Amino acid sequence: MLDAQGAPVPAFGNGDGIQEYPPEFWNQFFAMDVDANGRILLADQDPDLPIKRLLPDGSLDESFGVGGYAAAPELADVQALAIAPDGAIIAAGQLAADYAAANEIPVGSLGVIKFEGSAGPDIPLDTLFEGGFEP
Hints:
disordered C terminus; elongated; 4-stranded antiparallel β-sheet; Neuraminidase; mainly beta; 4% helix
C-alpha cells in the first residue's frame, strides 16, 4: 500500500507497507474494491470463487462471511466488485453453467449479484440482473 506521495504506508501489512500471504491463500484475484471503513474486498479466481475481505492493515477480516470468505456459487467467476452506498457488496461475472441451466438462461450469460449484508456467517444473495448475453 502506498500513500498519496507514493511512499509505503507502515501501518499496512508487516510495517513496511507490504502484506504477505501464504501461497495457498490466493489463486488469482480479478477484482478489488475498498469500503468506507478501509476494508479491502478481493474476488479470487479459484474453484470455490471466494470473495475475501481484509482489514485496513491487510489481515483477513474473519467477521466477514465464514472466516473472512464468502462465495458466489451462482457465478462461474467474479470479474468485478463494487460497494453500494448502503455498504452491500455487488459482484458481477459469468453465470455458472448449472445455475444458468436450472434457470433456463443461455450458457455464457452474465449476472450481477448483490450481497444483502456485508458481514456475518450467512449472506443471502439477491439476483439483480441476469443478462442473456452470448459468450
